[in-house]
DNA sequence: TGAATTTGACCCTG
DNA sequence: CAGGGTCAAATTCA
């Protein structure tokens, strides 16, 4: 872990720059006239922050990955009340947990913010998984209620993934989605791309094309930590600087169906969303999510974090594209999972991600 | 009719 | 006790 030399860092920066490039391209497109000014502003701030980040990387020359300020440490959490089976409801009552480190069954909390452009009544984006709503609660201090969802295959396959969806106070078209756990369910046969054989020879080409029309008229950003170096506020829209954002002009988006505008069964976008949601940053405490501003230090530690996030995102992207390209029946989550564990161990292979830059070129 | 949502009660934690 | 998460009966949906 200490052997991260400048080379890898350089690639990282390159990746960042590619990201910037892409953002600029998008901004360019939006400036053409058909884009909303808000979006342009958003993109601009995005570019700014990413640039800032890159500069920080270059200046610091290296990044030693040490999350010093995770503060919360929260970990906490939940006792393992997840014992769905009545079979074993014995034996876990009085346990003063001095330390419940669930080594293998860790609950992860991934918060992403999803904005769907389109109608006023916009359904949350379909992330490629089927969810069943099991509750809804009014949250104190929040304008909109929070919906509780769990994977449809909870019983059938024991998939314990859950998510919470809630509209942002400021912008009702923006949703905060918090994912818990990971999907262990196996994906059904892909109906949409069924009759779509793809040669494995030019997977890269396929992936590239996928990547190109990968984005639709929605914005997905992963929110790890708060506290951007700059405190841009309220122009119109978001006030938090997201580490990552994907958006593009509304190319032929599916016309509003009767109910679900995003009824596409398995589109690249969905895959991306799913993958992205799987690859979020760890250690986000409740209090953090509730506190948009707070803390001001913009140390190098943050950069390390950013890196990690970026790498995660990139790997997610790669996973998504690969998955889409090969259309493999094997669970996509498996790949992502593997990547995640690698990341967890701080053993990410830089060489793996690098090819993505060529996609953006 | 089976599956998914709605919705208030219930439960757990701080 | 309040706030947030889950259960489950009733209800709607396909
Ligand atoms: Zn699942």
Describe this structure in words.
By secondary structure, this protein is an alpha+beta fold. Helix content is 36%, strand content 11%. α4 crosses α7 and α7 packs antiparallel against α8. It starts with 5 loop residues before the first helix and ends with a helix. Mean pLDDT is 52; it is low at 1-9, 62-103, 189-218, 224-266 and 280-361. The structure holds zinc ion (ZN). Residues 129, 151, 153, 159, 161, 183, 185 line the site of zinc ion (ZN). The structure holds a DNA duplex (14 and 14 nucleotides).
Give the gist of this structure:
GO terms for molecular function: DNA-binding transcription factor activity; transcription cis-regulatory region binding. The chain contains ten helices and six strands; from the N terminus they run ααβββαββαβαααααα.
Strand-helix topology:
Blueprint lengths: L5 H26 L5 H24 L48 E8 L14 E7 L8 E6 L2 H4 L4 E6 L6 E7 L22 H10 L5 E5 L45 H11 L7 H5 L9 H27 L5 H13 L5 H4 L2 H5 L1
Antiparallel strand pairs: 1-5, 1-6, 2-3, 3-4, 4-5
The chain binds zinc ion (ZN).
It binds a DNA duplex (14 and 14 nucleotides) through strand 2 and strand 3.
GO molecular function: DNA-binding transcription factor activity; transcription cis-regulatory region binding
Subcellular location: Nucleus
InterPro entries: WRKY_dom (IPR003657), WRKY_dom_sf (IPR036576), WRKY_plant (IPR044810)
